[in-house]
Specification:
six-stranded parallel β-sheet, 36% helix, 19 helices, alpha/beta
Amino acid sequence: MVNQSTAVGRMIVEQLLAAGMQHAVLAPGSRSAPLALALSQAADAGRITLHTRIDEREAGFLALGIAKASGRIVPVLVTSGSAVANLMPAMVEAFYSSVPVLALTADRPAIYRTTNAPQTINQVGMFANFVVGELDLVPSLSNSATSNVTELFARMTAQDLSSDAAHRSSGYELASLTCGPGHLNVQFDMPLMPDVAHLEWVPSERPGIEAPILRVGDTSVNSDVLALPGRGLMVIGDLADQHVAHQAMELAEKLGWPIIWEPTSQVHASPNALSHGSLLLATGKLPTPEVVMTIGTVGLSRSVLGVLRSTKQHIAVQVASASEVRPDPALTATSIISAVPNATTTHDLLWFDVWRSADATAATIVQGALKGQALTGPMAALTLWNQARDNDQLMVAASWSVRHLEAYAPTRQGLKTFGNRGANGIDGLISTAWGIAACGPERTYLLMGDVAFLHDIGGLNVVADDRPNLTIVVLDNDGSGIFSQLEQAQPEYSEHYEKIFGTPHGQDLWVIAEAFGLPTTRVVTADDLVRTLGRIQNIPGVHVIICSTGSRDAEAQLILDIAHSLKESL
């Protein structure tokens, strides 16, 4: 008879398959052996794709990227002790982005938690504030144990099991059907491996979820009809749900409102979308709207937060999320509604024309400023945005990278976009993009800064046979540029600025990327970047492009000059 640890490991993998698992990620360890072996056997049977990472932090973000792109539950298996703590950054992002990542953590039996046993800490509740469900499992094949595992996975993937006996016995309350991360901690006792007679195993052929879960909650339109002013503005932030994005675009067209959009909003193809909305708001020259409606995670730019503060009516649409946070970053919402509304208005025929005309002026100024051959961060970001094909995917980092696109990228068709906007960190970006690329139809691009690249350099430490079609474009200005636009860059703080904010690294990023066995190109002109993107567009595998963008001070001045020219022209 197979031992208890092996039997429970196999049960969990079968429940994951039934919940729709197609990919799994693991970092090596001893205590996690029963689950690692079962996942490997599931991969050998062609049921899943298994990804191995030596760094648990990178493993967590890889699982995050795969789950973002696929909408399916993705387990990340780690052994006991500090290995579990390394998953925290990815779990935080998964929680605030409503992504079904499962922290699958191996543990020793609970009796050892207070005995100073090797590699043993209290893992229970470690992610309590950042999961939609958690379970500390004593290995058992009882009906209640299996039901509790099933219910945890159902909760993570927004399945309604309310009519199932498992739901009635588990004690979970499915208050809302919203995808999100979970934690399954499993107490494994010895022996951890099956004996030879019971080594062979193939998962059962029970059907799992057939289609990816593309929505994170209720995306119905409110039945109540809102009467709204004609001089309104729609601000759409980070939004993973394409269905909600379509609803928002249709409403903006119906109302005749311009759309201010962030790069990960999925609305950059809307005829009502402005190309340079955040720049226009920053001038203070456009008329104040009577109402602003926000959808998704907004607030990349202070100019957007500023218009929320200066507008008397702010309607915030609560997109369902695992975190259940209020969509009110400027503390200005006069009402929060649960879905994109059904609304009517008396059209102000000149309103949209005023914004569209100003946007055309901004486009002329941006195009004039971002021309020539000397490569800058804004120019490199804009070039990548324009060169990517409709069926490609783009992951864009926080900090300056995403703000370059927000300010200077024009509307366009196609190109699905991603970002870790849940917690807005720069950690784990390479591994997140790697996971997105693993599910990609064509090529995935990652646009990031040099500090973020160095922060996640371990994400490049991957075996050669696990390389998706991913191009990493790094904006290298030898340090953190974003702070040059903030209070920290004021002259009175100059004595401390470089040491604690600018943080120049002095590293040759080309040498570092090549050391990981990745084909890498350094570009210094706009034409170099265009040629390099075109050359590797259809070459399989991972490529790195290091864009030498000059000094941070020069880039900051360029941004100020564009803003000044626009303000003077309106």
